[in-house]
Amino acid sequence: MTVRKAWIIASAAVGSALAFVMLLVVGVYLVAGNILNGVGGGTKALAKGSVPAAYAAIVQKWGNLCSAINPALLAAQLYQESGFNPNARSGAAAEGIAQFIPGTWATHGIDGNGDGKKDVWDPQDAIPSAASYDCKLASYVKDVPGNLTENMLASYNAGAYAVIKYKGVPPYRETQNYVKTITTLEESFAAPVTRVDPSKQAAGAIYYAQKKLGTPYLWGGNGTAADGGRFDCSGLTKAAYESVGITLPRVANDQYNAGPHPKRGELLPGDLVFFSADPTDSRAIHHVGIYVGGGYMIDAPRTGAVIRFDPIDTSEYFGATRVTEDGAKALPTTV
């Protein structure tokens, strides 16, 4: 079948859906700001698969250790620190999934799994230790004015003394960015309790992707001249959002953390939709597309195919992300 014939067939199959799409895309602008954010107050349950299955239960348990933290916040810290890599090691000698330096571990590490030893390389010890350390810092600054969680995070970055001295988050750019990063990432790990705000840039991202329909797939392609204008799946979604001023990570499983996660029945055009053979782990995501409405996405599917419309309701559908500027900015450059 020729590319032109494939395009005609695909167009016919989703023609009515696309008419609906344009109404929804316009609606992206009309309703932006009129829908409540997807994360409410109180303790926050983890979004589907946002934490690898091996760690989800322990993050959920220890994330409720004290009122200053919650499971989504703890997950955001672990992702920021190591990308959930239990073997991570930094140039500053930070070690393990929670990136403790040896001196801090010696003082604040705990035997989380009760096996008689505390091991910084064992997530069953390191994750409880991270939660315990957060709560200890919160106890130091509990009488400081302002938001307890933000003051706790600031203490983690700059020390409790600085938070006490300045009566809140100190005026250090690094510390203020750290607090904003973690609290923003928290939203991408929390299961929304209400509908989430539509992205104002969604329509522009769809417009970009539509112009690439029929372009041959290239593994690792970013659409550059050197790539012949070709893309792979995450290269297309990255370029589409870059066209409206939002910089996403390069790979699909990191793009999943660029904002909150609407339910299947709440999808809007411009949402990123993800696919994985493992429904319990966002780190196993292997494909991403841009939702356009009517159950369809624009995606770059595989070698030998072209950028096209595909249905999203397959056995490997994992979930969706409503991209936000702050959410994308908060993502670490490497995890």
Short description:
The chain is an alpha+beta fold and 335 residues long. Helices cover 42% and strands 7% of the residues. A five-stranded antiparallel β-sheet has the order 4-3-2-1-5.
Question: What structural keywords apply?
Answer:
335 residues; five-stranded antiparallel β-sheet; disordered N terminus; alpha+beta; 5 strands
Please provide a written account of the structure.
This protein is an alpha+beta fold and 335 residues long. Helix content is 42%, strand content 7%. It has twelve helices and five strands. It has helices spanning 3-31, 53-62, 71-82, 102-108, 123-140, 148-158, 160-166, 173-189, 202-211, 233-242, 252-255, 325-330; strands spanning 272-275, 287-293, 296-299, 308-311, 317-321. It has a five-stranded antiparallel beta sheet. β3 (296-299) and β4 (308-311) form a beta hairpin. α6 (148-158) crosses α8. The longest helix is centred in the N-terminal third of the chain and has 29 residues, at 3-31. It is elongated. The two termini are 42 Å apart.
Count of strand segments? 5
Largest sheet: 5 strands, antiparallel
Q: Could you spell the SSE succession in H and E letters? A: HHHHHHHHHHHEEEEEH
Overall geometry: elongated
Q: What is the assembly state of the chains in this entry?
A: single chain
Radius of gyration (Å): 21 Å
Order of strands across the widest beta sheet?
Answer: 4-3-2-1-5
Please give the alpha-carbon distance between the first and last residues: 42 Å
Mean pLDDT: 87
β-strand percent reads 5-15%
Number of helices: 12
